[in-house]
Amino acid sequence: MPIDKIPAAHGKRRAASILSAAAMLVVSGGLTTVGVSVAGQGVASGAPVGTVVKAAGASCPGGVLKLTEEDYYGAPSKTNPSANGMKAFFGNYSKTHPCVQVVRQGEVVTGDAAYLTHILSQFSSGSQPDLLMLDNPQLPQFAADNLLVPLQSLGALPVVKKINPANVEETTYNGKLYALPLDTNTIAIFYNKALLAENGIKTLPKTWSQFAADAKKTAHGSDLGFVFSGQAGPGQATWQFDPWAWSNGASTTRPDSPAAVQALSFLTGLVKDGAAPKSVVNWTQTQPIQEFEAGKAAFCENGLWNIPTLESAYPKLKWGVFEIPTRLAGQTVIAPFGGEVWSVPKTNAKEEKAAFQLLKAMSQNINAFARDVAGVPTEPSLWKASPWNESVYQPFLAELQHGRSRQAGITKPANEPAIDLDIGNAIEAALVGKQSPAAALQAAQSQVAPLLK
Q1: CA dist 340 → 1, 185, 193, 377 (Å)
Q2: Using 50, 70 and 90 to split pLDDT, how confident is the model at 234?
Q3: Do residues 450 and 14 make contact, with C-beta atoms less than 8 angstroms apart?
């Protein structure tokens, strides 16, 4: 699932340079880092990447090159297909490329904030990995600080022509491609078939008014009606608010537009009327899906990464998925892209080229990578394959066809996390009744405006 929880600066000031911020970070907990020798920087403690790990021989005249890869998928286990898939792929790559040894070090950090802090510390000390996975909103920050290598300067990437152009756009900064999006995801509405039947709901809602009526019908007793994330913070309230606002004609750059105010007024009205619990303001994306899995919620806004777990761990739960309703019938649902992207940090020419070849090999296995992380391939031609041809994926695929990068329209996309937080604070203020939706979004606009210049 997308982490999307970057600890961002408040919107009243511009995002600071990543390296400047990293200089003040302290990483604790005995995290293991592998040093990288970078021109103009020192080498951190530990075995530096690029050193010879085996003696040079006829088959590897220069010795075996050690490359490190970093992600936040956690340690391999029986219940962690993402990490298991990574371990298997990199192990096989090392076997088929005997002059390269790939070391995955991502399992040392699994928390979102801890992961970013760890990465920043590595860049600050010159110990960054050779291949780095980032949550997609983080990419512009690193590209803006000139920490990553433009991929097409390292060689050709035929896969780019096959990837959804909108996904390519989210990994492009100042006209240069800085990462590959191997998988993507988005959010839609999960529904409990039993609760809908108990309340006489026979047709799935397509408009806001229909959805509000149905959510109100199913919110009684211990049943919660509609559950979603209303907590301020990158990747939470704003991420879940975007499709309601964007589908209504709003944009991230104008949070105080009438279309955005209508969307926030609608969600605020659901909470006020009891169609959604007041506690949503305290919820990340985790709590709503837990309530849904427990059979307590009729409707839940959440991501497609939940599908494998719902299918395997909750066989008695009868559920389905539909696209997020629009204010007016016939409006196109525009939802944000989630998912991680893969970049090549600046190290030295030899390691950068080797890391690029590794990434190129990964791009030839998009199907497997998307399956492992419970995502959808960024190649639309693969959507006809299992499991993405299942009916529960179709609403998500329909939305992805019109998906939008969260950086879209932002002149300085590195400021997106701060903008996300400003809008999230406005959503939270409206949901708790501290401000009207219009006043809250007007306050957000005043904070966002300097970040757009």
Answers
A1: 9, 9, 32, 12
A2: confident
A3: yes
Backbone angles phi, psi at 133, to 5 degrees: -90, 135
Which of 31-45, 148-162, 225-239 is predicted with the least confidence, judged by mean pLDDT?
31-45
Task: Pick 51 or 229 by higher pLDDT.
Answer: 229
Which among 155, 164, 158, 200 is positioned nearest to 183, based on CA atoms?
164
- Give the residue range(s) of CATH 3.40.190.10 domains in the chain: 18-181+341-374, 187-336+406-452
Nearest to 240 by CA among 332, 319, 324, 171: 324
* Ramachandran sector of residue 200 (left: φ over 0; alpha: ψ -120 to 50; beta: rest): left
Query: Residue-wise over 104-141: b if at least 16 C-beta within 10 A, else e?
Result: bbbbbbbebebbbbbbbbbbbbbbbbbbbbbbbbbbbb
Distance CA(166)–CA(269), nearest Å, equals 33
Q: Which CATH number fits domain 187-336+406-452: 3.40.190.10, 3.30.1330.10, 3.40.1190.20, 3.20.20.70?
A: 3.40.190.10
- Token pair, residue 340, equals 């991680």
Q: What is the pTM of this model?
A: 0.86
| pLDDT tens digits, one per residue of 97-113 | 999 999 988 665 666 66
Mean pLDDT of 66-80: 87
Q: Whats the size of the chain, residue-wise?
A: 453
Closest listed residue to residue 445, CA positions, set 234, 14, 265, 425: 425
Considering the domain 18-181+341-374, what is its CATH architecture?
3-Layer(aba) Sandwich (3.40)
